[in-house]
Specification:
With 86 residues, the protein is mainly beta. It has strands at 2-9, 15-23, 40-45, 50-54, 69-74, 80-85. Strand 3 (40-45) and strand 4 form a beta hairpin.
Length: 86
């Protein structure tokens, strides 16, 4: 099990979403809807693993949705990989 805190920021450094998730291996969880396009995403764990990235969903044209879902994967080597979906 791992606790992962996620904070989504807008272009004016306002918090659009902030939540701590407790996840086990190969588990997914979804929470909240963001009505405004994010600017940055921060993800971190209590163990000091962290990553910040710009919201930039460069998805193929067949992803026909306005705001993309933000996802992340915490790998066994303690790296965080961001991804997007609809």
């Amino acid at each position: 099990m791992a606790e992962i805190a996620v904070r989504v920021i807008d272009s004016e450094d306002g918090t659009l979403f902030s939540r701590v998730f407790t996840l086990g291996s190969r588990k997914m969880m979804s929470r909240g809807t963001i009505e405004t396009t994010p600017s940055r995403v921060h993800a971190f764990t209590a163990d000091g693993v962290s990553q910040t990235w710009q919201y930039d969903p460069d998805l193929p044209a067949d992803f026909e949705c306005e705001l993309k879902d933000i996802g992340l994967t915490l790998h066994p080597d303690n790296t965080i990989e961001p991804w997007y979906d609809c």
